[in-house]
Each structure stands twice: as structure tokens, then as C-alpha cells.
UniProtKB/TrEMBL annotation:
This is Inositol 2-dehydrogenase. Residues 5-125 form the Gfo/Idh/MocA-like oxidoreductase N-terminal domain. Involved in the oxidation of myo-inositol (MI) to 2-keto-myo-inositol (2KMI or 2-inosose). It comes from Janibacter terrae. It catalyses: myo-inositol + NAD(+) = scyllo-inosose + NADH + H(+). Homotetramer. It comes from the Bacteria. The keyword Iron does not apply. Residues 134-250 form the GFO/IDH/MocA-like oxidoreductase domain. Its EC number is 1.1.1.18. The gene is iolG.
Amino acid sequence: MSPTLRVGVVGVGLMGADHAHRLAARIAGASLAAVADPDVERAADLAEELGGVTVHADPLDLVAADDVDAVLLASPGAVHEEQLLACIGRGLPVLCEKPLTMDSASSLRVIEAERAGGRPLVQVGFMRRFDPEYAHLKAVLDSGRMGRTLLLHQTHRNLSVPNPAFRSEMIVRDSLVHEVDCARWLLGEEIVSIQVLGPRPTRHALAGVLDPQVAIFQMASGAVVTNEVFVNSRTGYEVRVEAVGEDGSAVIGRPSSGVYTTSSDPDGGAGAWGGPIDPDYRVRFERAYDLEVQAWVDACRRGERVGPTSWDGYASTVVCTAGMESLTSGRAVDVDLVAG
Ligand code: ISE
């Protein structure tokens, strides 16, 4: 193993700041060396809080810095291509939050650059693959003990999304993209077509935004995946999967702890039962993020690469692009991937 990996974090919004704290406090074999954000004040505040961290206004300066061995990109998807190409150009391993890039042509350019460099360097931040429950489900499906998998039913709810930029397309690109990756990974095959339906929108959605959405994936084997994505559910962060096989079914993501019973009626009427619901992904997938970043750091120190690849990032971008087309037409759209 090489010495401590000095990591630079690009983008210190919600997710980047969360990763910066993780790297500074919980990840073995790594240190947080630098942060970069166009909002320098925000980056400087974080650096001061964590101590001993260099601040860059320009992410490309961070990528070029001598004291950075690896980069975690938590910047907006629209700037990923340039930043990824800079990391690959310097031979730096990079953990890139989803989406890899915004369209298939730019994702392909990243794949090409990585291949030309002769060494796989990109891990895409599909953290659910590291979640213990997801990993368990994957092992059950792969074991064949439920026979062939016929159906997946995936549910993905956020409490609310106040950001006015979060329009219908973004629900596909930013939220549904996780279901795209999970379907491909859990079933070990590609999605061949996608249809996205917009039922009656909730009154909590911004005007003109289709929320919830229901997406149907046809898999190469003929298996079907149904997905509900509802980002203004007013319920909480609920992410569940039910897999239906020929010889059994399995569910993950049901609340399994903190269940309580209580009498809600002071006059002694019937009570209620329940428990807390996670407020957001940082809480629900905290363990998955820890395991993901630790696996990345360990692999970097061994000179290897693990987890979702740039191909997985490309494939999910292509499926989401087809999904956005279906959102407009209402029809199923074929997914055309280049030959791997
Ligand atoms: C966010 O970017 C995520 O990745 C979350 O997992 C997802 O639930 C949310 O809808 C996205 O905005």
C-alpha cells in the first residue's frame, strides 16, 4: 500500500461538504488535502473548520496541485467532463458523483481518454452498490436461489425539492439515474428501452413539473423494472426495492428499527405505530457513502479501481437521455449503446 492518499474535493455543496467531513474524520488511509469551489468563501469556511486544507477557487488548479493524489468530484454534472479529462490527463484516480456527464458524446470522450491513458481511473458515485442491503440483495439474486428474476419494483421518494431548477428532466437525470444503475447492476444486464409516465402531479410540485413519475425499463433478458420517483412526497427519503423471481421474492429498504407504538388519542382511543423516516440521502445512505469512499481510497492505494466504471456512467446517461425523450412523447424509447 502507498502512503496516505491526499484527496482533493471539488465542489463543496451538500454532497461535497459531506464527503469532505467523511475524508477528514472517518476514512482510513486518506487525508483531505484540498477543496475547490467557485464559491471560495464557502470553500474557505469548510477548510477552516476542518483545518490544514488548501483552498482553490478554480477546480483545475486543485487537479494540478502537487499535494493532491486523487480527486473526488462533487461539482455539478455540467462541468464534469472538463474536470474528469484534467484528472485523467494527470493520471489521477477520480471518484465522480453522478451523473458522469450530461450526454452520451461527452461520456464517450471520458471513456476514450481513460482508455488512451492505459489505466482505469474513474469510479462513478453510484453509492447504493455499497449499501449493505443492496449488496445482500445482489448476492441473493446472483445465487439463483430465487430462480430467474422476472421483475424489480423500485421506489424512490424524497421529502421535498425546493430548488426551482429541479424540473421534470432533472427528476430523470438526477434521481431516476440511481434506479437505472441499480437495475443494470442488480440484474447484470442492459436496459433496452425506457418509458416514463407522468401521472397526475402532486400539488406540491412546482408548476409544470411532472412529479411523481413512473418509469418502466425493459431489460435485455425480457425482465421488467417498474420505478416510482416522487421528489416532493412530503413523506421522507424512502428508497425500496422488491425483486420478484420465479421461486421467491425479496424486499430491501423497509424501515427495520425504531418502530414504536403510541396512543395518539388522549381519551384512550386506538393508538398508532411507526418510526422515524430518514430525511435525506446523506442519512439513509451514510454507511453506503462511507463504504464507497473507503473502497475507493483502498483501491487507489493499491493502484487499482473498483465499483461502477465510466462505462456504467455512460450507460446510465444514455438511458436517462432516452428517458427524457419519453417524458416528452409518452412513448417507450429504445436505448442505443455503442459496442462496449
Ligand atoms: C440527489 O442528487 C441524489 O443523488 C439522491 O440520492 C436523490 O434521491 C435525489 O433525488 C437527488 O437529487
